[in-house]
């Protein structure tokens, strides 16, 4: 009898294990199905034309696929970046037809250049006058919001909601430039940037290029973390992209998620290292919310997601010598495009339809010899820093930098960095 009871117990245990295995298998299959459907919607929505029959209408198969995808992503879920990406792709499909970037120039400020309080009249006039073949657009904060409501309210309202939730102007400034370029295509440049060469003379102009950005900084020092958040960081004050480019789509979905996550946790507060009275543990770091960290990380992630990309180096020579020691973080598996790949570049690099400009292209502040690929000078107004008081005044830089370095070292191991 004892043997019989043990046998029955073993049989019950085996049945339970089998049920659990079946349940886990169903969960795995469901997860795989969701991933496949997300991939399908991104692929289908990125195609320039749907399949058509002899009557000029979409084929039954194509209609069925799109109908199934539409039902899956009808409901927004801003906490899942893949869902938001898919919804953006469905509403704003990327046109893969070979062509240059749209000839739009976008600049923004809280008031119009005609306002007496506007500080950079000469710079914005230069952008407008030196590029006569471009459609120049200067938008105030109110005009930006009106544009975004018009284009997003009935398409991907969760993205608009995320924008309107942002608690500071700098967050909205960052997000609005990404959104306006994503929705309309063209070039964005800060109002405190000075144009060196007309845009038509830039390396990427009149080429089949989809996204353009420059390296912000390349500091090869053991203490590089005291100066930059990433070893090779990409700037955001001047950028170009085709409308609806998938790199910007990925970025917008990520910022939307960070914003909704912050609201859910009650942390809808912006933090920066010189902000006074802000709890790091109950806020989100601006750099990681809409700034250089999420921007740079998304660019790297996008480049590393490309399948067998074509890489063109205009000049393979680097500013560093082969025997020089390079300082920086460890490189993870699959990170083929990383800080070492871009360290010391002197000329543009093309990776599929992405152009990465060297540091001097958008911030020539090292020497007066601007060179062939120098296009923009950034004056670094930084009005959002120091609790809205702007950049540190000349003469105080070293004092402030030492103070910030000390604070960073003290708080690095606290375990609460107020970021995602």
From TrEMBL:
One of its GO terms (cellular component) is mannan polymerase complex. GO terms for biological process: protein N-linked glycosylation. Pfam families: Gly_transf_sug. InterPro entries: GlycoTrfase_DXD_sugar-bd_CS, Nucleotide-diphossugar_trans, Och1-like. Residues 386-420 are annotated as: Disordered. It comes from the Eukaryota. Residues 388-420 have a biased composition (Basic and acidic residues). GO terms for molecular function: alpha-1,6-mannosyltransferase activity. Belongs to the glycosyltransferase 32 family. This is Glycosyltransferase family 32 protein. It comes from Kuraishia capsulata CBS 1993. The lineage of its organism: Eukaryota, Fungi, Dikarya, Ascomycota, Saccharomycotina.
């Amino acid at each position: 009898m004892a043997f019989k009871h043990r046998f029955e117990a073993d049989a019950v245990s085996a049945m339970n294990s089998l049920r659990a295995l079946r349940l886990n298998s169903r969960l795995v299959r469901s997860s795989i199905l969701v991933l496949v459907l997300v991939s399908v919607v991104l692929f289908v929505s990125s195609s320039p034309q749907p399949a058509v029959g002899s009557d000029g209408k979409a084929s039954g198969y194509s209609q069925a696929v799109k109908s199934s995808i539409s039902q899956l992503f009808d409901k927004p879920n801003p906490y899942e970046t893949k869902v938001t990406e898919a919804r953006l792709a469905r509403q704003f499909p990327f046109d893969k037809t070979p062509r240059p970037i749209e000839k739009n120039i976008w600049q923004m400020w809280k008031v119009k250049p005609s306002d007496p309080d506007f500080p950079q009249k000469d710079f914005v006039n230069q952008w407008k006058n030196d590029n006569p073949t471009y459609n120049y657009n200067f938008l105030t904060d109110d005009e930006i919001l009106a544009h975004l409501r018009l284009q997003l309210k009935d398409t991907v309202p969760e993205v608009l909601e995320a924008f309107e939730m942002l608690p500071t102007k700098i967050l909205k400034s960052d997000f609005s430039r990404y959104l306006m370029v994503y929705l309309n295509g063209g070039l964005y440049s800060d109002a405190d940037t000075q144009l060196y060469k007309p845009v038509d003379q830039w390396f990427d102009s009149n080429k089949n290029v989809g996204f353009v950005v420059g390296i912000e900084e390349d500091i090869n020092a053991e203490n590089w973390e005291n100066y930059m958040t990433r070893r090779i960081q990409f700037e955001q004050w001047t950028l170009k992209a085709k409308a609806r480019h998938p790199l910007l789509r990925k970025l917008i979905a990520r910022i939307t998620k960070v914003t909704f996550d912050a609201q859910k946790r009650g942390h809808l507060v912006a933090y920066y290292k010189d902000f006074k009275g802000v709890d790091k543990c109950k806020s989100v770091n601006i750099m990681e919310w809409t700034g250089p960290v999420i921007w740079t990380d998304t660019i790297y992630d996008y480049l590393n997601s490309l399948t067998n990309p074509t890489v063109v180096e205009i000049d393979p020579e680097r500013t560093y010598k082969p025997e020089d020691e390079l300082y920086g973080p460890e490189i993870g598996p699959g990170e083929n495009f990383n800080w070492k790949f871009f360290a010391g570049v002197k000329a543009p690099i093309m990776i599929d339809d992405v152009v990465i400009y060297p540091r001097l292209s958008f911030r020539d502040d090292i020497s007066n010899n601007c060179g062939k690929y120098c296009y923009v000078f950034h004056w670094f107004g930084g009005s959002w820093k120091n609790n809205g008081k702007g950049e540190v005044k000349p003469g105080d830089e070293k004092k402030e930098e030492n103070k910030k370095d000390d604070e960073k070292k003290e708080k690095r191991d606290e375990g609460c960095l107020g970021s995602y």
